[in-house]
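Weekly modeling sync, notes
Attendees: S.R. (lead), two postdocs, one rotation student

Agenda item 3: backlog of single-chain predictions. S.R. asked that every request posted to the team notebook include the full sequence so nobody has to chase files. The rotation student volunteered to paste the first one in as an example of the format we agreed on. Action items at the bottom.

Example entry:
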Amino acid sequence: LLETTVAFFTTAAIAASLHAALDSSRRAAIGWSALSGVCVVAAFLTKGPVGLFPLVAPVAFLLLPRSVSEKREHAPSAIAAQWTTVGACALLLLAWPAARMSLTDYLNQQVVAALAGEREVSGSSVTILKALLQGVLLPMAGVGVLAIAAARRFVAPLPRDLSRALPLLLLGLAGTLPILLSAKQAGHYLVPAVPLYALAAAIVFVPTLDIVADRLETGYGRTLVYVASAIIALGAAGAAVAPGFGRDRGRLADLDAIAEIMPRDQIVGICPESNGDWGLHAWFERRFRAGLDAGGGRGARSIARPQGARAIARPQVAWFLQTRAARPGCPPAECAAATDPARALVLMTCRRAE
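Predicted structure, as returned to the notebook:
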């Protein structure tokens, strides 16, 4: 679900860069570029390197026709302002020990591992390209065909319009193609780039859609547009909201059943078979501010003691969560059910070794 937030920040970063390219004042261009840099940093902090592609926006907008972006001499200042802002934020974060440790752990455990294929691996090395074709380009092409059919012809855009669409298309590709470097790919990773593809396609089809709009201005055409728009809007809203009704109803009941004795701000052990249930992790964080640790199902560990002292073996957690996905014998022997064992989620208390 992070792509939604990333898309907000990357789109804002590109919009700010576009303002910088269009503004006739050097000071305003620098201000917009600095804002773009802040949004890039926010996108990176949301989901790592995939949020960095707006850094090429000031360069891409150099391709805009001169009639649109007349102050090309501001481009070096805009690029420098954006990159300097990102660099300054990076230095501030690295100077903060807690942030530096968090970022280092994230890069090692997420980014490097994903590039090396040590985390989740997609079924194909070109999954993102298949998703781009099937989920973005083909639907847009289908809408374009409908527009051409409604206009009864295709009106080619002017070269000036194509030069406006090209930077947006290139930015969309910049937000898509680098994902090919990772063995971990998914269709929803496209979300931040989709607005750019949509805007580029819109520029291409605007001349054709102008004809359709002129025809709909006569007779009952305008009423038809209003009715169709209302139906589409209501249908989209319903489709967005409907999955939430009754979602996780059974799980919420199980969480309610353990809420009375479930401790807050604790680490709770789970079996490795349940570790991939990300919804379970999310609900425990949301409801109880509790972390789920699959290592808790592997028995005791040796806790380091000062040199010369004997290491003491202790269970990793004082609490354990048993789920129906757990294999028989997974919960540690020193753990006993503290809630209804007939439910899908069973909270267990674990006796610590002395």
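Discussion: group reviewed the output briefly. Residues 127-151 form the longest helix (25 residues).
Action items: rotation student to repeat for the remaining queue; S.R. to check formatting next week.
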